[in-house]
Amino acid sequence: MSKWGLIGIAAIASALPLPLLKSYITTKNNSYMLFAMLSNLIVIYTYFIMLQNQKMNIMYPFIKIISIVMVILIGTFFYDEELITKHKIGIVFGILALYLLAQ
After folding, report:
1. Which of 8, 49, 75, 93 shows a CA-CA span of 20 to 30 A to 84?
2. Given this model, what pLDDT does residue 66 score?
3. Sign (positive/negative) of CA torsion 46, 88, 57, 1?
4. CB atoms within 10 A of CB 84
């Protein structure tokens, strides 16, 4: 799999546990907890694969910025959490950081 594909998988798997845990807390449905744990295992596995071939100092911040933006968007659209101006500015800075890291 390509570097960008692994980064995408890691970012998605890294972002999913928070909304899944929030769903578990509100519904007490154990399947949400199971999927959150599975998601964390996927993150560990993709890190293992990527660290064999990629630079950690670029890969890890890249994944974290993408997953943070995803968590903010999931919270905003699925849990009706407020997206204030500071969050929007933070997302812009995060995207700028992604651009700079990708260079």
Report:
1. 8
2. 85
3. positive
4. 9
> Looking at the whole model, is its pTM more than 0.90?
no
Write out the two tokens for 101.
């890291």
CA 60 centroid distance within chain:
11
Q: Where do the domains of the chain lie?
A: 3-102
HEC string of the chain equals CCHHHHHHHHHHHHHCHHHHHHHHHHHCCHHHHHHHHHHHHHHHHHHHHHHCCCCHHHHHHHHHHHHHHHHHHHHHHHCCCCCCHHHHHHHHHHHHHHHHHHC
Nearest to 79 by CA among 22, 39, 32, 30: 22
Q: Compute mean pLDDT per 10 residues along the chain, 103 residues long, and list them.
A: 85 91 94 95 91 81 85 88 88 85 74
CB 59 within 8 A of CB 43: no
Q: Which pair of tokens denotes residue 68? A: 């943070």
